[in-house]
Amino acid sequence: MKRARLIVPAVALLLLATAGLWWWRAARDGDDGLIAASGTVEATEADLGFQAGGRIAEVAVREGDAVRAGDVLARLDVAELQARRTAALAQLASARALLDELRHGARPEELAQAAAAADAARERLAEAERGYGRTRRLHEGGAVSREALDQAQTAFQVAQAQYRQAREQAALVREGPRAERLEAQRAAVRQAEAAVAQADAALANAVIVAPFAGVVSVRHREPGETVAPGLPVLSLLDPADRWVRIFVREDQIGRVAVGQSAVISADSYRERRYPGRVTFIAREAEFTPRNVQTDAERVKLVYAVKVAVRGDSALDLRPGVPADVRLRPKGAAPAPPPARASR
């Protein structure tokens, strides 16, 4: 009888402990079996600036404006860059014109001029040869001095050299430029083309173009200001790439998987629910960040998990907004779609 009285309190204590464990797990995971965690909404945000420095001529958007990919957001003053491009184009035109001239060779007028110069040199040579012959015969007869003979001989030799030079010049004109000179001019054309491409790139770098569709979150600079290369002028937010970063305890991370559905809520819109999906799970555990607040007791090791926001076209969940996330564990029955309050 005494033993029976001892068994009854033990059974009652066991039932009480079981109920307490059930209550603790329900408070930890939620009474519906979901894994609950809190975090802050984050989003992809790009700081946009000019690759070249200069004075800002225009900022075409303001904070809160929605832009499309490829829209022009800001411009620099490009007067100097335009002048450099004009000079580069002129240099390119000159280099190409000279290359065309070398390719086509001498003009008919130049060929005729070279041939005429050779003919004239040949006639002067014939005349000098005849004069030298006459002077030599006169010298042999004693009619002229040795000095006169030497002068006639020198004139004949000079005429011979001039004729050879004129004939070689005519041959060069007919043959056209050497291959090395053509290749050097082609290199000059390529260098001029590179200068034009550099000028075009500088002009392109003087414009900020939206890399993706988004919303202007910050306008850092105004027209008339001078900025250095890379200094942020605008910040662009990508509303299609928002997520909530939560931290899941080490003893629960096995119940979370990439692609897992989630339900997101925020204090500002308590009556609304937003669908989410797990897109990232950290491979290594870390100590619980100090700014993480959960209903359960803090634990030492947690895993970072990113839950992407889906279906929030109104942008209720803005970056920086605290949010609550509830994940249905792997293998659990699918949860009904989140209820949405009418706007």
Give the proportion of residues in helices.
40-55%
Distance between the termini: 68 Å
Rg on CA atoms, Å = 46 Å
Enumerate the strands of the largest sheet in spatial order, edge to edge or round the barrel.
1-8-12-10-9-13
Major sheet size, sense and barrel closure: 6 strands, antiparallel, barrel
Task: Work out the helix count.
Answer: 5
How large a portion of the residues is in β-strands, by DSSP E?
Answer: 25-35%
What's the pLDDT, averaged over the residues? 80
Question: Could you explain how this protein is built, in words?
Answer:
Helix 3 (108-140) runs antiparallel to helix 4 (146-175). The chain starts with a helix and ends in a 16-residue tail after the last strand. The radius of gyration is 46 Å and the shape is rod-shaped. It has a 6-stranded antiparallel β-barrel. Strands 5-4-2-7 form a 4-stranded antiparallel β-sheet, with no helix packed on it. It contains 5 helices and 13 strands. The chain has 343 residues and is α+β, with helices and mostly antiparallel strands. Helices cover 42% and strands 27% of the residues.
What's this entry about, in short?
By secondary structure, this protein is an alpha+beta fold. The chain has helices at 2-29, 79-104, 108-140, 146-175, 179-204; strands at 35-49, 54-59, 66-67, 72-76, 207-209, 214-219, 226-227, 232-249, 261-266, 269-281, 286-287, 301-309, 322-327.
Could you name the key traits of this structure?
alpha+beta, 42% helix, single chain, 343 residues, four-stranded antiparallel β-sheet, 5 helices
